[in-house]
Amino acid sequence: MRTRLLVGAAAAQVLAAAVLFSLAAAAQGPAPVDWRARIAEHVDTARERTLAACKAKGIELPADFLAWIDGDPQLRTSVYGCRRDPLPVLLALRSLELDLGSERVRREYPQLALAFAIQSSYAGPRAEALGWNDGADEKPGDALPDLRPRAPLQLVIPGDPRVPVDTNDPQRKHDRDDHIVNFLESHAPVEVDVKVRELPPLEYDEKGVAKPRGKEVAVVRKVARAPLAADVIASAALQAEFNAYMTANGHPDVRIDCGERAVHWYSEAAVEDGALRKRIADAHELFLAAYRSKGRMPAARDPAPTMAESMAWLVRNDRHAFPAEVRAERKWPRFPLTAPWPLLLMLAADDQPLREREAIWQAFRDHGELKTYGEYIGGIAQQFDMQSARRSSPFPFAYGSIQMMWKDGGVCGTMGNIGARTWRIVGVPAATAGQPGHCALVRMDHDAASGRFRCTGEQYATGGDEVTTVHAGWNHDDRGGRRPMVFHQAIAWACNHGMAAHLETMVLRRVFDALPAAEQGAQALAFVEAALARNPFALVLLDGAIAALADADDVLRFVDRFETLAVPALDAKEHALYRTTVVDLAHARIAALPTPAGAPANQRLLGELERQGCRDTALLARTWRAIDGEAGFTQRCKDELVAYLANGKRGSDRRVGREQARRLGALSATVKGKAAKSAWANELLPLFAGKETLTIRGKAAIDPVVLELCKLAGREPPAVDAAK
Asked: Which of 229, 486, 606, 626 could make a disulfide contact with 287, Cβ separation 3.0–4.6 Å?
């Protein structure tokens, strides 16, 4: 409650500041713009243009459907105001209604329907996956949903597509793949290692009473079974048997040579021998082709569902009648499908086949199973062909499925996919995300008590939100594409602040984008003020406005406007990354502009950048050099390191040294040439004479800044001085 009150008070400050800006502008120039009227005009115009396009294409939409949209201001704005071309959104929404019925789309799950309609407009004309009609008279990219009357969709979960072939059928001639499968399935059982989890053996006290058992442990057991393709690939003896069998059955050219346990069910090391790797890969392809042609594996992955099928599946699950106690145990629903549509786009983007989803859903529904992680394996995971060969076997799901990921294991990319896909299957918007050298995942979260949403990360390894880029498209700016984590967080915060206000900022971005390029720079700051007066998290508009600014002074003014209008409404801790991201984007824009002419202009720019807390090392380095050359750049680097050495937190907080080392590395990137970098680093190293070692929490280590300088200088780092 305290946070809500603070945000409310801060929002009042934002509005008051916006009024002051508007009054000041009015005193100096033309009358202030009626932004509310301008937003309404854009939506009205977009609506008229869209309905005219429908008429031109011979598309008739029911009057009650259009009246439903017009009767809800937020719905109307979402349909007509959030895309440059609203036609695909409008028609996709109508297509969903034809398939799922007006009750589901209009009254029960309108936000989910909007999410699917808007997400599909970004996805493009995926005719088969979306159920759209690619008419022969339409140009590529002009595919439209099929709006012909039809019976309501009957959700059908496809069954196992495999049709097993009797490879011993005497009525037909056996081909190569028949013989391959017969060798495997008719072979005497072989002993293989199988890892199982068991409770430790019972232990008894002196009175003969059994002690409590500990946790389950993994043990290896020998199990007898008919050999799988993976067993043959792992065994030189079985390979020899296989080669002889194929020769005896008329296929002397079919031979494999994979060595002894070069790849086996539990191997984790990559295969370094290129020739051996090719032989193993060829063997895997041979067995895979046989498994597929004889119905032991699907010939291909199941097709993606249409958007109507996907929505129907999610709605069916959302309405599942869990008993009250089970509902509580499952924490169901995991995420409300009535949430604002911008928060549901990751969910609507899920294209996992229904059969794959259904198996995971049933395990969750019936047993509460929610596995968001799998078997982590080693370097072999970087070799997809070897990873596949090590566990080649009959399987009801194809490669690419979450089930195959569970079977074969992997490293971070597989784990992130397992997590994100599982969350989406239980109705939570989620996506994989990249970090330096690592794949993590992000998901939307909902606090039922406060009603607030947030975007949170999981499986982080090499940093926090600040180094995380979400793989799902940021489909809020009419362009899409991957963006840093904070962009997705800003959407959640914007919806928390107010959905109506967030939609208005999206419309403002569309209005801004429609301006001639020459006018965008001149009007950018006015749009920024209008957007921030509505929602301090108006990143959709801010991002476009920053890119349009063509003068460094205007960019500096933008930062000041943002600090005055938005920052009072932010939580200093929760929204810190949002604040620095906006400022960093602005300063990056200055870096993209030409360097000001002359030392005085750059000195003034530097003063402004320092006042605004600029963190753009490349921009700062460029400005330092523009003021007093390379020598001045080096001296400022020295001054920075002197300040670092005087920082009282240097010897107590490892993050201080790591951050300074990172910054030093960024500064070094502006020094051209290896020799110049080495000379520059050697000039800085004497500052650390006698101060190379840090002792933090009783552990001595070389200062990370010294390590960075030694690497740049081409010198061996000093030994750790425990006494320091």
From this structure: 229
